[in-house]
């Protein structure tokens, strides 16, 4: 979230320069240029500040001992206890927090990986093969984009109850694989970036359809796939409602649900408050890493999807 | 604060989802209450128990060691209104509810009305255990019905007054024993720059505890119809009193359970807190700099010489509808909530204050607490526990009622309206909520 900010900000700034000089009349151009640049900078700085402030608060609070947390200013550092706090967090309740993080990584990582593959194959098929009902299928998928995942949680719970599979790893993992928006992106991108001629050529050379997809189309679609992966990773990581409804066993919780559970116990056991805050801080680190390392792909993927 | 608010929003989402799904399955007030047969099963039994009490798995382990034939698995989740109640209703709908669930007293009527509780009166030892429990808790789990027990009381929250002994002594203010003296002390304290206490917007159940002490109640259930009395004379009396303190600027108005609130106590800006027994731990963690300076006295009284007390919080262990093993489940619930070893463990793990009469004299509750100047504070609460009006009844729509009254309270703290008006609005909205669920209302 915070990581994405700097990238568009930089781009917006570069774009602003040629735009202003092109549209402005000649005598007034330099002044307008300066003004619009300053205005853009101010907007960027303010919004950057606005988005980073909570993260800063979270970081600062994570470094404080319980006594200082209540008695010192929330935005200023006091004694640095971050590593002590993290140690306590990992030790509390037999290290259940680490288990939750692992679960989240598993749900989000494996879920997004398989989900991306499914989306890519579906999108590719919808873009490159002609078959009756193709548009109908695509429109149904598009309709799926409009249905919020939250609205499906309860029906899913009742369905999983029928087969006795609630409160299992699969009850959260399987629904997470489905991503209609990913199918949409993959179709748009595949039709734009995978030339039919190339597919024809590979067919002539004797490559099977599956092999063509994995060796040629997949490589051409990589930027879109990274975008889909990131989207889905974040969506699964932040998905809270489905695990809340499905899971009862603490050892299956993803980190979001675990932290929420702790937070709801704060009134009863005030000590947990510290763990909630440090836990929240630690839980955003994997997301930040994912964004920073895949940022470049993310941008180009988004851009190419939107132009078409 | 941000975090807490988002939790509220999440809770609200959960609630509205509940409203959407709840209507379909709900058919008026509960079904027949005749106690079903309750026979032990042959062979080994496995029970599931959902509770959000931290560390309760360790207490359940004690049971599992001693009872190889009745093994209990603990399931957990967020606190009741945070999602677990909603989950219970979903599971009841799907037919896979746990055998046992933790339900707070103020949520029990909702489960009763939606027929989510098993009547365990016929189970071995349940009716006989009545005398072990504090009178008012037993009424909470029977709803006054004959031959019916729907849950086993677990813990309670008798109320008293936490106060800064050092500050009161220094200022030469006698510890208030009546609400009149409390208001007088509030003025003296304000003149010295402090506040006597804080008025929380969202702790409506705290306010209900004060009404409870004043002898009032918000709901009653007669002839299968609910009577809503948020605007009863006792309720209005309490509201007028606090309205006076708020209007004169004698109480602080920070949101409870926030850093700001902790800080008000930690820096000595707020001098007292009328709160439940479990609040002892909230102060000691929230205001660590004031260690040793606090003491506990009984709640101020409406009439000098009385000893009335209110109650804030507490929960029960209920056997949920559809459990195949009510006999074993109630056996476990009785052990969990009456056995001295279990009660001691619950107190040590999660600060639970027992609902049994014998539990109040547990050795673990006898010692002085250093944070409170080595005062044996639990003696005060044990006395208060016996003075709680046994006839208080919660309604089936408490979450909604709390939310509506809290909205009104928020307006008052912001400077518009009065507490009485907030209660009147809550009254109206509660009646329409009951009617919307086709629950009969007595006018």
TrEMBL record, chain B:
Lineage: superkingdom: Bacteria
Keywords (A to Z) from UniProt: Cell membrane, Lipoprotein, Membrane, Palmitate, Signal
Signal peptide (residue range): 1-19
Presence of keyword Transcription: no
Coiled coil: none
InterPro entries with a match to the protein in the record: Bact_solute-bd_prot1 (IPR050490), SBP (IPR006059)
Database matches in Pfam families: SBP_bac_1
Protein name: Extracellular solute-binding protein
